[in-house]
Task: inverse folding
């Protein structure tokens, strides 16, 4: 196995297409990932069409890699297919609710990570876009997602045209807890975040943004309360539109 | 690489412990999975203590494998550690909202699948428990999860003591869509679900439950509207308790 310990996200791709056949075979293999009650509550929308990519790029704040990647994958939580099956079999589906959305999102993300691991084994590079939840409504419209289908994660895929440095990770003891959660003291925080804070790029971003430290770059610019509140409202609106917040049995 | 195409979930384990060192090294490697803004919004609670496992088993409907597995892993969405860091650095965290929960859950599930893939590469068997969202409140209490930490997925881990048949999967064309979502016609549904419906175990469960078909086993017994509504309410309550549904900036 290609060492997972050496993986890195890839944002620059060669102008070489990724074959439909390869995507299909990776999706087939990835579907072996565990799934809730073996319901496979996901769909994968594969976008190679430049016009559709251009429209999707708007939803992803026009990040260059969305247009440059030969393939854009939108992993969707999907309770529509399962519900259609139920309807065709005189079984009454009751999946327009939050826990069903969350079960479907779980299936989708396990499938997505399995796909990415397998794709990287084949020499492809991937990058996840955290922007999928910024504008779910736009993505729903562009891809024509029906009721009970919701975009959960977008991944760019292609053959790597860069060999970036690995980004840092917290020391593993910072994420592990034995038998119960042990909350973090200020001393724990200092120790866990020390390496990250001392990186040249952390200092660079701190200076660039005119903040006192890296944490302030996140709270003031990258993941702000104001943006989070606005996105949460848009997410609730989109979940409601997609039928995942229905109170009554329909 | 051990063929992912041949993977299966393992529910019976040898009475052999899984070393802390191995879990730690798998967690370290899995933390190379992609993460939103490199924030690593997850924690992993590792439970090998039989008393804690016994208490957790109640939250998981006393499924035998929860007690029998040498290790139980509770993968938690965690915005607490990051927020503590912010607080220690005079940065004001604004992560008590739905989109932050969802970002953390995404990170957590990508990390969880990476962990499971790597664990299986080492000869371990794993099984995900879909019951984590049934009783999040109980798990939160047992593990002492603070504000902004939420249990997302539980996984049992151990050395396999069974070699089960692979379960079925839908044909891959049933989950793939090109450029946009193509909704399913009744004919599509018949074709996609034909193999699953013709399996001996599908007929067995249909007969056992006295239903007309497999879909009705799901809607009437396994994933019912009534249970889903009750669980959705418990999930909202637990999300509120953990501070992920605060409207105001605190």
Result:
């Amino acid at each position: 196995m290609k060492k997972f310990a050496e993986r890195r996200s890839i944002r620059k791709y060669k102008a070489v297409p990724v074959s439909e056949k390869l995507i299909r075979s990776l999706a087939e293999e990835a579907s072996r990932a565990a799934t809730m009650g073996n319901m496979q509550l996901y769909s994968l929308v594969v976008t190679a069409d430049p016009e559709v990519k251009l429209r999707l790029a708007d939803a992803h704040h026009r990040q260059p890699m969305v247009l440059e990647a030969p393939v854009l994958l939108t992993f969707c939580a999907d309770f529509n297919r399962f519900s259609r099956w139920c309807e065709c079999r005189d079984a009454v589906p009751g999946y327009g609710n939050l826990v069903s959305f969350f079960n479907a999102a779980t299936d989708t993300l396990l499938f997505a990570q399995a796909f990415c691991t397998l794709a990287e084994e084949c020499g492809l590079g991937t990058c996840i876009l955290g922007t999928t939840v910024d504008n779910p409504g736009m993505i729903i419209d562009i891809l024509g997602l029906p009721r009970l289908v919701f975009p959960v994660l977008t991944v760019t895929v292609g053959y790597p045209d860069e060999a970036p440095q690995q980004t840092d990770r917290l020391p593993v003891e910072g994420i592990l807890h034995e038998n119960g959660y042990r909350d973090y003291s200020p001393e724990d925080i200092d120790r866990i975040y020390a390496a990250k804070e001392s990186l040249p790029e952390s200092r660079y971003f701190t200076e660039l943004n005119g903040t006192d430290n890296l944490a302030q770059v996140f709270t003031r610019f990258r993941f702000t309360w104001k943006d989070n509140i606005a996105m949460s409202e848009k997410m609730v609106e989109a979940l409601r539109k997609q039928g995942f917040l229905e109170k009554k049995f329909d």
